[in-house]
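Task: sequence design from structure.
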């Protein structure tokens, strides 16, 4: 009896990752205004954007180029593990697939009942 194991790439994990990252970027963009009043950050903060859509576009553009510095600036210090897995070839493949799927379909919707997320 011969057992064969094949690795197949599924788009579900990448779509889930896209949803998580876009939600996180939305959260960061919406929290930027209240944080602007507190100018004493203890850690370098993630880059802020004027709108959630700008944040999504910046993320997609950085993943298309595999611009690690831009991705780390966008996601902040907590995003280091998302940006780098330790295997650059695999990271490049995942980022290319993420960017392609994100370009295919992305949308940012703000909940009118809660336009600014609480801290």
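Answer:
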């Amino acid at each position: 009896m011969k057992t064969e194991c094949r690795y197949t790439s599924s788009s579900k994990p990448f779509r889930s990752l896209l949803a998580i990252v876009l939600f996180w970027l939305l959260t960061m963009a919406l929290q930027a205004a209240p944080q602007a009043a507190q100018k004493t950050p203890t850690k370098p903060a993630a880059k802020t954007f004027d709108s959630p859509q700008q944040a999504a576009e910046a993320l997609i553009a950085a993943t298309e180029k595999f611009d690690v510095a831009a991705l780390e600036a966008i996601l902040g210090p907590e995003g280091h593990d998302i940006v780098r897995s330790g295997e650059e070839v695999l990271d490049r493949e995942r980022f290319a697939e993420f960017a392609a799927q994100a370009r295919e379909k992305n949308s940012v919707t703000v909940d009118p009942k809660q336009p600014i997320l609480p801290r």
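The first helix runs from residue 11 to 36.
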